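Supplementary notes for students who missed Thursday's class. We covered one full example, reproduced here. Read the sequence, then the structure, then the short commentary at the end.
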Amino acid sequence: MPEARRIVFRMLECDKPIIARVNGHAVGLGATIALLCDIIIADDHAKIGDPHVNAGLVAGDGGALIWPQLIGFARAKEYLFTGDLMTAAEAERIGLINHVVPADQLDEKVYELARRLAAGAMRSIRWTKQAINIPLRQLAHSMMDLSLSLETHANLSRDHQEAVWAIAQKRRPNFTGR
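Structure (token representation):
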């Protein structure tokens, strides 16, 4: 949990633009890391989602922070409560990510954008990023400790134990809310 907290805050405090190159599935903390990036580009075979609840856990590692900011509370709640994965095309359509490209064009698209940003007014880009991230950093400071604490408690729950047993036994979990 401390490492997840460090990752979230370091990404929000980094003054350089971060481009996510999503080549495959971005799930759970992987989705959070991708979504905390400044620009997200995925290949057309990628899927993204946060299935913490399917393992009896809380999306406390940053999912509850970033998803509502990108797609609004109603959609974020649906995806975080169900743990459903979505295609990259759907993620682009609802504004969760910036671009979807064919897999063979992913590197070209990412590097083209990186070169464009590197050739830009870097000080202005950095300061713009700092200004944009002020509310995200404030929100992260207000919620990350509780979110991570709740995820830790969920890790000790019977529902999480049931999810682990169900995975081992290759069956669907039977959650009881405990």
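Commentary. The helical segments are 2-13, 29-36, 63-71, 73-82, 88-93, 106-118, 122-155, 158-168. The longest helix spans residues 122-155. If anything here is unclear, bring it to office hours.
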